[in-house]
Amino acid sequence: MPEKPAKQRLTEAAFALFEERGYDQTTVDDITERARVGRSTFFRAFRSKEDVIFPDHEVLLSAIEARLAGSDPRTALVAVTEAARLVLRHYVAEGDLALARYRLTRSVPALRAREIAGTRQYQRLFQEFVHRWMGGGEETALRAELMAAAVVTAHNHVLRRWLRGQAADPEAAFDSAMADTVALFGSTGETETTVVAFRTGKDLSAVLPGLRKLLGDEGALG
């Protein structure tokens, strides 16, 4: 079997050591020794020990920006939903690594602060995009900030539930949470019709009341 790439070995070694010894008690030398690489290899892959915990943050920011940039006024809500979904899918795909990160950020204040700062960056991207979509005027600045905060809160709520083992199907939970989030804001003043599609395993009769409320028309769906 071919040997794993050095970055993967470093990541696995670091998380194993953080679990065994604690984050503060683990040094870069400990990590490189466990991964069987030199210090120079470590610093080509990561800027610091902390960066091992959040290696893909900049990649995710770029992915969000690209998804939002690829939309137009008619598909803006879809773009916001799908951009947030990119982050959720990334963490779910990490599996045990995401769970280990969650444990670490709950127990190490410096890592929790880094995580919060990263979340604010995500929120700022959504806020700037929504503000432009709404026209970019002073009268829409607060509404854009509130909507961006709601999107990030909905995403984080679903992610935390999955990390705690409380959401067996995070994609379905995300769809439900985002439907509730979009419903909070109702009409945005746009004259065009925007269609947002969500997947759900619920029976249609259970979904219709929420859709009717979102559309603002109790008879819209028959």
Notes on the structure:
With 222 residues, this protein is mostly helical. Helices cover 72% and strands 0% of the residues. The chain contains 11 helices and no strands. The chain has helices at residues 6-21, 28-35, 39-45, 49-53, 57-69, 76-94, 96-107, 109-133, 138-163, 170-185, 204-215. Helix 5 (57-69) packs antiparallel against helix 6 (76-94), helix 6 (76-94) runs parallel beside helix 9 (138-163) and helix 7 (96-107) crosses helix 8. The longest helix is centred in the last third of the chain and has 26 residues, at 138-163. It is elongated, with a radius of gyration of 21 Å. Mean pLDDT is 86; it is low at 189-197 and 214-222.
Contiguous runs where pLDDT drops below 50 for at least 5 residues: 189-197, 214-222
Please write the string of helix (H) and strand (E) elements: HHHHHHHHHHH
Quaternary structure state of the chains depicted: single chain
Shape: elongated
First-residue to last-residue Cα separation: 60 Å
What is the count of DSSP helices, taking H or I runs of 4+ residues? 11
- The share of residues in extended strands comes to under 5%
Structural class: mainly alpha
How many strand units? 0
DNA-binding region: 27-46
Protein name: TetR/AcrR family transcriptional regulator
Organism: Amycolatopsis silviterrae
Keywords: DNA-binding
